[in-house]
Amino acid sequence: MSLSAKQPKPKTCKNPACRSSFIPRRLGQAVCSPKCALATVEVQKAKEKKSLAQAGRREIKVRKEALKTRADHAKEAQTVMNRYVRLRDAHLGCISCNKPATWGGQWHCSHFRSVGAAPHIRYNLWNMNRACSVCNNHLSGNIAGYRPKLIEKIGQNKVDWLESNHSVARHDIPYLKRIKAVFTKKCRRLEARIQCNAA
Ligand SMILES: [Zn+2]
Ligand SMILES: [Zn+2]
To answer: How far is the CA of 7 from the centre of ligand 1 (A)?
Structure first.
């Protein structure tokens, strides 16, 4: 065996801030100096602290989710669906008056039959249409204007179905969670498409 073969090969110091080449003096030596050893310990400690904090945040999120009531989930599902309807109808004017799609004010999602009066169809997409904030807030949906325009939009049969539907639907938590997940995705897709069209 030649002499050079016995010489340990140079290694690169594991301290990210150093990375210098060194000849190890003992087996498994990963850093060039005690100073770099200390530095890597600090880096490791910081990493552990960070992952602990992340686990803590995850835990809090899980607990918060578990504490949510059915009403909380219902509200969240409604928020997401309302957003979806505003995006879906972005190219349309107000369902209840003659404001055009280009109107610069606030847009809402307006229920043809209100959430209070017909909670079983509060997530029905025929029942939900984009309206200007004036109609939705101040004219209680401006139903006199809403009805003929809804018939024009979805047809008499569907409007009849909405008006004659008196079933009782219980939206349980898994259903509400599914709505939220599905429509969050649909919103993202529509937003991307709208941005594409605008570009
Ligand atoms: Zn080093
Ligand atoms: Zn309006």
So the answer is: 20
Could you identify the residue written with the tokens 């301290």?
15
Question: Quick check: helix, strand or coil at residue 129?
Answer: strand
Rounded Cα–Cα distance for residues 154 and 107 (Å): 20
- Predicted model pTM: 0.71
Which tokens belong to 141? 């949906």
Other CB atoms within a 10 A radius of the CB of residue 179 amount to: 20
Read off the pLDDT of residues 10-48 as tens digits, 9 standing for 90 and up. 999 999 899 999 999 988 899 999 999 999 999 899 999
- Bridge partner residues of 189 (DSSP): none
- What three-state secondary structure class fits 189? helix
Q: Hey, how many other C-beta atoms are within 10 angstroms of the C-beta on 30?
A: 14
How far, in Å, CA of 37 to CA of 25, rounded?
14
- Distance (Å, whole) CA 101 – CA 107: 10
21 CA to centre of ligand 1 in angstroms: 8
Q: Write the pLDDT tens digit of every residue in 45-98.
A: 999 999 999 999 999 999 998 899 999 999 999 999 999 999 999 999 999 999
Ligand showing the shortest atom-to-Cα distance for residue 135: 2
Residues measured by CB to lie within 5 Å of ligand 1, the ion: 13, 15, 18, 32, 36
Q: In angstroms, what is the span from residue 37 Cα to ligand 1's centroid?
A: 8
